[in-house]
Structure prediction request, 291 residues.
Amino acid sequence: MESFAGKFAVVTGGGSGMGRELVRQLAAQGCDVAVCDVNAGDLAETIKMATGESLSFVTVSHQLCDVSDEEAVRRFADAALATHGRDHVDLVFANAAIGAGGSFIKDQREQWERVFAVNWWGVYYTARVFLPLLIAAPEGVLVNTSSVNGFWASLGPAWPHTAYSTAKFAVRGFTESLIEDLRVNAPHVKVALVLPGHVATNIVGNSLRAFGVTDDEVIARANAGFRENAPMTAAQAATVILDGVRTGRWRILVGDGAVKLDEFVRANPEAAYDYQELAKYRDLPRPGPAS
Prediction:
């Protein structure tokens, strides 16, 4: 897909972070966008930014949607088609995610399963609902956001990261399995796997809100610490993703840290969780959740 002009894209988790920047950049390049999120305030800010920066003929619509609820995703799709007067979509970015549930042993089951539901079932339901609409397009691309934690299930020593990593591994496996399925049954539709490293997003604060934290100061501090240590902005990450989609890549590593960690794990699978060996390899930065 060499150009996004005149296309119709769907972005989940578009209220902040990479999702917001995808919406902004797509709209600025002449693409209509339907965006969803669970946070109304964040969603409104995304729409304000995107409409202020987009071309005059571009429409950016929005709807509150919890992607872990299949019926909510269906309502989002129906509203998007009606608002934009379309019978198909050209691009779908399954980007919504939260963190928490680090320990399978010690953390509450409900927390673990909530993270897994958003990060895995959200991608699955988005594909179930929107893939037929991509197939109805002349050409289409399904873009699923996994993570470096989709090929390396850790954040480092003494830091369990099970729910997020398990879900992101599932996203990776599902996306790769679709390559041949689409090649056989819908060859005009492609799938892309996004594997970000540490990107400056609001995922830490959004995760706190998802589990009931309402203190804006606490959320701001948590976000600030995560963002300040990130080597890549969300805008830079979105540019890498869109460049990858535009050039037809199915595997899009986002950030030098992601590239280096991928090299290490592929070359040294038995040492992937040997943190002393890992630390010696090209001064790898600690990866983190990205969406």
